[in-house]
Amino acid sequence: MSVVTLAQALNGGLDLALEKDPNVVLLGEDIGRTGGVFRITDGLREKYGEDRVFDTPVAESGIVGAALGMAIAGLKPVAEIQFLGFSYPAYDQIINHVARMRNRSAHRFTVPMVIRIPFGGGIGAAEHHSESTESIYAHVPGLKVVVPSTPADAKGLLLAAIEDPDPVLLLEPIRLYRAVKEEVDEGDYTTPIGPIRVERSGDDITLFSWGAMMKETRAAAAVLEDDGVSVEVIDIRTLSPLDRDGIAASVEKTGRAVIIHEAPLTAGFGGEIAAVLAERALYSLKAPVRRVTGWDTVFPLKRSESHYLPGVDRIVHAARDILEG
Amino acid sequence: MSVVTLAQALNGGLDLALEKDPNVVLLGEDIGRTGGVFRITDGLREKYGEDRVFDTPVAESGIVGAALGMAIAGLKPVAEIQFLGFSYPAYDQIINHVARMRNRSAHRFTVPMVIRIPFGGGIGAAEHHSESTESIYAHVPGLKVVVPSTPADAKGLLLAAIEDPDPVLLLEPIRLYRAVKEEVDEGDYTTPIGPIRVERSGDDITLFSWGAMMKETRAAAAVLEDDGVSVEVIDIRTLSPLDRDGIAASVEKTGRAVIIHEAPLTAGFGGEIAAVLAERALYSLKAPVRRVTGWDTVFPLKRSESHYLPGVDRIVHAARDILEG
Amino acid sequence: MFSLVNPDGTVRDRLPISIEETKSLYADMVESRVYDHKSMALQRQGRIATYAPFEGQEGAQIGAAAALRSDDWVAGTYRDAALMWKAGYPWDLMVLGRTGDERGGAPPEGVNVLPACLTVGGHMIHAVGLAWAEKLKGSDRIAFTSFGDGATSEGDFHEAMNFAAVYELPVVFFCQNNQFAISYPRSEQTRSQSIAAKAEGYGMPGVQVDGNDVIGVLTTVTEAVAGAREGEGPSFIEAITYRMGPHTTADDPDRYRDDTDAEDWAAKDPLLRVRLLLEKAGGWSPEWQAELESTAGERIEEAVATAEAVAEPTVGEMIGRVFAQPTDALLAQLAEAEE
Amino acid sequence: MFSLVNPDGTVRDRLPISIEETKSLYADMVESRVYDHKSMALQRQGRIATYAPFEGQEGAQIGAAAALRSDDWVAGTYRDAALMWKAGYPWDLMVLGRTGDERGGAPPEGVNVLPACLTVGGHMIHAVGLAWAEKLKGSDRIAFTSFGDGATSEGDFHEAMNFAAVYELPVVFFCQNNQFAISYPRSEQTRSQSIAAKAEGYGMPGVQVDGNDVIGVLTTVTEAVAGAREGEGPSFIEAITYRMGPHTTADDPDRYRDDTDAEDWAAKDPLLRVRLLLEKAGGWSPEWQAELESTAGERIEEAVATAEAVAEPTVGEMIGRVFAQPTDALLAQLAEAEE
Ligand SMILES: Cc1ncc(C[n+]2csc(CCOP(=O)(O)OP(=O)(O)O)c2C)c(N)n1
Ligand SMILES: Cc1ncc(C[n+]2csc(CCOP(=O)(O)OP(=O)(O)O)c2C)c(N)n1
Ligand SMILES: [Mg+2]
Ligand SMILES: [Mg+2]
Question: Which residues does chain B have within 8 Å of residue D114's beta carbon, measured at their own beta carbons?
Fold first, then answer.
């Protein structure tokens, strides 16, 4: 056990995967010589060599498509895309090929690969560097989508993704890379893909979130607890396949729900969770479901970031609204 | 007035737009010489010339990106992508550029363009030819998304899209191109982008759908009416911006909702509508909301199509469930 | 443009293969054409979905596939049925796929032919990844990818070519320039003098070959494959050919091309010239032709029968194909579907 | 590689411009460098966000922009501040943008310079569309697009090049090959002998020019622009240069490149050679240099002050930028935001 950041936990997980399985290879822009723009692959090219950790030309579709070919031929590629805003040129390869090769070939050719992508805003980054378009990936049949919010989950979900016989998209919350530290097992372990994580158990209201917004969600929960509200905080953690039972069970207990995400509201993943509640927990709902999300605008530049990002206040406000309502 | 199919209505709308505005140009694969794979642009190259109707190389990102440049420079391009399954190579241009140029340039450079794409299954087509990934587009801030299900709306929404000062994605239901006929005004008119269309008014339950699934939805409504149920049928028609007031108002009246779409369930656009109901109409809901959608699988080939496509039976079944429930 | 056999069956240069081998290639082309015609008929009868015929391209496809080793990787398109078959993909699975059944996408173990790619340009980069893996594993298996003239306009073509060159991978890029991308003529697809000339921009050798000359294609691809296998990296081949039929059964070529063109190309038919060559060499007779056709016809009929005898696919199979193991969420959907 | 002025300030060929004009280009390069240094400082002080310096590329950028007409279209990248400024985009807006304010993306009416593109390769096709529109309108305005060596690996580069050639559009493609895409060296980016050689695969002329020779660049781009304006279609220019600083303020070049390289390139500095040339011609003095620097410094300070005086953006502006008119849905969100 050692106390590490989310970034370090990912680096440790990749190190371990490269060490234990010679078929694991990493590829992406600037991941070798510089260890990636966020240094998640730091030191791995030096340690495992140029034939395990590849710097690539600037070509996202190429990276993903080549990784797909590698996976079919028996390797376990872990591809990095620098930011979620640069993943779109690869969207075609992901939805039309990576996620479908198993179906198209009736299980004959399979694609055990991982795509790692830093995502989310809040660091005053330039345009395209703050995307949270997880819902466009969660909608893709044949692709699993996981989003850790803690160092331990980051490593565990990464290792589970690498072990998975199917393609997994791992979205890494940029804002949390170095913002949180916790004890992480140095050994080999996996965090199961699928189940939500009940981070804090409570009776009056459930706050659902994932990725970087877990930070504000936790903070909002603390404020509400100070008010004497018993708050359940759920880290969705896997967007696809979604743990609908877990989601419904929580609200059957608490009767109230606020869903928090950074992406724009419309067709964001929060809609899916609200829909699960409207379908499965309607009779338990004591108040309307609330979504606290980014506005339906482009993620803004630094000076307007605070106008966009759902803050603790908005979450608390929404929660109080439905607690009192 | 003349009685035309949805395909003919679109052709007539394009003809009219080309005629009245010299800045309107069309571009896309095979839209000129052959009039497009669905013949929606039939005859227009002959009529307006090679400098108004362009056949292009096979390059979707190029088509959309070039149209964006044209729009900035004062033209009104209408780009066609052959099938929604081939739009993904252009997703980056659409989300990162077409939908953001206004924001990036603080209104200085604007993108009045239309992207037309046939979508949906049910005709036993080959892989990638039956996509219904409208939710990945509805999630894009700065892009409007419209989906007609009738000939009159097809023409009206097309003309509204061409007039719109911002980019509009027009999704054309393949299955309905030639399946429905109705009287369509031969003149110049627009159907407003935004408001839902209440196709049939009722008191006991609302069926929400759009595009090709309106056909099954109508049929299901007829079955239910035969049972004595008073059914409201709503054609969402514009996915973005979404008419949340119209959606909520209907269910405030009926108390019950079934949402029908062809896309896979998870993170499909139905989630957004269910969420609106859970937020705005909770206290009116007499029964859980139901979504009748495609499964979370790849859209299958012909022999399995009936396993996938939500049919009249499933809709009726879901409706009865919540009517009795 | 490299060529060994002229349209009239005369030979430009010493042939690298025997008459027996030539006869075998001819037989394969005949069988392919029988399949192609049968498929057109099946489509008209509503027994298979939209079909993309390859008539006229048998020389390119059979010649190329004949140059591959049985365990090499192959990634081709919807129009590559002859190529895929020659590379080991059974006819019956091809037919099964075209009846609208995903199970047709699973060639037997040992046959490393990916199911046909339907997104134009999407699969070339898969071949690159396959070759990359083989290189890393130290195997001498190569990856071969086939695509059309239209596909060279897609961004993915560019990225695939570049990756293959940058990592010096054993990939053979094989473009069947059949003069059209649906209705769009090669002359407008690119202003490059030739498609082969594009290779240079990637630091890769690029050659043109007469795609209707099965022996010329075989020779050219054999050389490219040998180079790739021996570690010389990727190469690019443009096979000049012509699609004699429509783009697909849903297409009407009269809208965009001249009959005279089609007639010119008919004279360059890839089967015809080999037949003329064999005739001169005493290796062809009407009886043999009839025998070839009837054997091929029987095989294809059998393949069709096999495909059509496959039981209806179930909803469980569809849902079961999403992941290695269906997730709980999918199992719940399956239960609902089976209700 | 075309070049007119050597690193030591000697001239290879008769210069096409006067000493006065040369002095003016020099002054522009000095001003640009002052802006660049100031921006680095502002970033360190936390006054602007991550910054991508162009030091070393002033010759390429000023030379290219000097060849354009004031109403031509320009589509460049995050590293093209000098180019965009010379094309008419005011410094203060550039700074404003980099403080994290979208309003910096709106150059004055009449300045047809798109805000910098941040997705590598995304904007070249926009230039193609702009040129296409101008051609259709019958204007003689051209579109100029600038991008890096790394960008040539993106699929969008390929599609843009092809469209421009196919439709014979007035586009000038200007690649600033600064040897690196972040940490990835040009030598690995492509196996093409030169980046300029890629043009041939599109049937487009491609040339290499010494990007650190501002007069050489001006000459080369002037010719390309003239060709485009006169209906000769697109062309491609590879300007060989070097990024003397880090990729951005967040980058550490020590991780991937040698100091000796950087030293070699320092000797080829685009400002230095013009200064030496002017010195020989009697057109340079320490006083003039000091004056240039102080004038530039004042202008840049003023631009920074102007940018920093811009009022905080409101949430209403953010929401108002999504569409020409905010939709009801957005107005509802605005109301919620303002609560
Ligand atoms: C990405 C994508 N865009 C468009 C299409 C529609 N389409 C199918 S085949 C084709 C033409 C392809 O031409 P070419 O590459 O020359 O191959 P050919 O059909 O001639 O064998 C097009 C545009 C597609 N399948 N995929
Ligand atoms: C589509 C996309 N992929 C990745 C990135 C991240 N990125 C920013 S700059 C850069 C390198 C670009 O190199 P080059 O084109 O040579 O331009 P330079 O920075 O050297 O001027 C990369 C990979 C991006 N901005 N956009
Ligand atoms: Mg073709
Ligand atoms: Mg560079």
Answer: 72, 101, 105, 109
